[in-house]
Amino acid sequence: MVKNSIQDDLLFIQKGLNEQVIPLIAAHRRVHYDRLTRLTGSLSRKLNSTLKNDVEFNILLDVLKALSVELNNAIEINSEPEFLNQFHEAVGSLQHEIPSKTSYSQEELCFSAVETDSFYVRIGKFFKRSNREIKRTYHSFTSYFRGVVGKEITPRVIEQHEVRWIRVSRSISVELLEQLALVRHTDHTYFSKIASILDDICDHGQDRIRREHDIRIFENLTAELENTKSKLESEFTGICESILEELLPKIRFMGTFQESNQHFNSNNLNRREKTATQTIITSEEKWAKNCEIYLSQLSIDIGIHQYNNLINNELLEFKNHFNSTLIKKIIPLVDKTGSYLRKTADTFEATSSKSVRTAIFKKKLVETQKELESKLNDAFSKPIISQLKSTDLINDMEEVLSRILLGDEVLPDQAFVFKSKQTDFRKAITEHELINFRLELTTFIKNDVFRKLRKIPITLMSELEKYHADVDEVIQVSMVNVQLAIELLDSEEKSNDDDKILSLIHDGLDRAAKRTSEIQLKAEKLVKLAESELDKAYANYSEVCHNAMIDDNYLYIRSKNREAMVISRAIDWKTRINSNWLQFGDSMYVRYRFTARFISTIYNKLELILGFRKSSGSNGYIEAGTSEFLAETEQKLAELPLIYRRLFAEEALQEARFFK
Length: 660
Hints:
Number of domains: 4
Largest sheet: 3 strands, mixed
Strand content: under 5%
Distance between the termini: 129 Å
Order of helices and strands: EHHHEHEHHHHHHHEEHHHHHH
Low-confidence stretches: 617-621, 651-660
Structural class: mainly alpha
Mean pLDDT: 74
């Protein structure tokens, strides 16, 4: 039986696809999008709640950590292999419902010339058309003569061709698989988009404006998922229609001169089907790995924020402890002493010069001297000196650094990171590297932050040690002038020095009070110095962490550690080479001196033996004894370490530092 229309059979196939295959694909994708919309809805509600309630950033970090766990559980569902089995079963059942092959009458279109045809195809079509015209003319001629002679006219044989629907259905299933691979690739990108948004929210930290912007992106993504979910069936129905429209010309020419053997070739279809199936499975695996890396980097960001909060709190505690030493203990004492000195100076300034020579004034001055001595020692000098002695900033800083190192458990130990920042979300970038981020960051902190922080207590302690001289100066200025005033009162001279005595007392106390103000101002500057030095020590590390989170360049920290290690090794080698060179120079110097003395001794002995120099009388005994003494001394010196031998050498004793 010859059928006239291929489109009728294609409509039958399309109906089977719409009833069996497309609902299966839509149901599978709907499960995926339902999971995505539930996830994004939950994430959006929690993030909006943190934004509206204006929670602390630490609470937001805990929320992000919980959301990352929820997202990680969602991507662990691997359903593609099971779905592909169901898809092949549905396509196989559809193939059983259609005939394996059908014959169709050839259309004129099969032999008509087309501009896109090659020269070979045009020649072939020309001979086909010529052969068809010859057969048609021959049939017309024979039919005419048969009619004339009264014979039965035989109908003209209609040229036909066979369409192997098994190969067509196989081609349709492969086309659907290839389109499904593209669609599923897009479906899986949403997990990484969600993870990247969470990463951005964590990266921007306490920036409320950026957080609002990222949450709006999240809400737009949720709306996009809802819109896509509502069009799942219609989307793939359109895809099937376009596939059938593209296949219609190829089916029409199937079994004819223009048949596309390459398109319906069994080996080619097998290869395409295998590639599409592998693409669907690997796409899910790649995007799952991509999302896993994002979540790993999110855990790094959360750990960095929590660890930096710990560092900030520890440095703030150190700063508050230092400030409490100066502001709450030393500065009030200095301020109270300064007020007392000003008050005492004002008291003497108000005293009349006529009452200076009285016994009452002298008694008051002596009592003031005793009171000054008592208060300046008991309420000013001793508490401040005691406080300064009890202040051990170096030990306090070491305790801070040890607590910082003990708190590194908030940092992830082993974590995956991208080798480069991902900018194109259409591709699943899985080029990653496994690093021990906890070790890398703590190493960077030791090389950068700790080295700077250890210098701060030394600087502050050197400034605090100057307070001893300042306190002594206040006491001396106060007591010396009062003592001079008492000595002037006790002097027998009764010149016009009453005003001088009052001025001496007032000026001394006033200068001491001003000195206390200078001490107080110096203490306030020292507090600001401590704060600025702590900020400077932390600034570079904070900037490196911020850039690493924003640019996803966590390997930069490792590169800085390796650079520091290379520099440290180079410095060690340089120090070792310098030390070895100095030791070699010292040993050569000692050997030179020993050789020179040996040659000198041999020369002197030869002079005596040859008679060029004579030893006479007691001088010979003295020279012999001296030589023996010097020889013993040389032997004892030779047994001493090198540094002592240089110290007792003749040249060393001539150096200027021994005569200072």
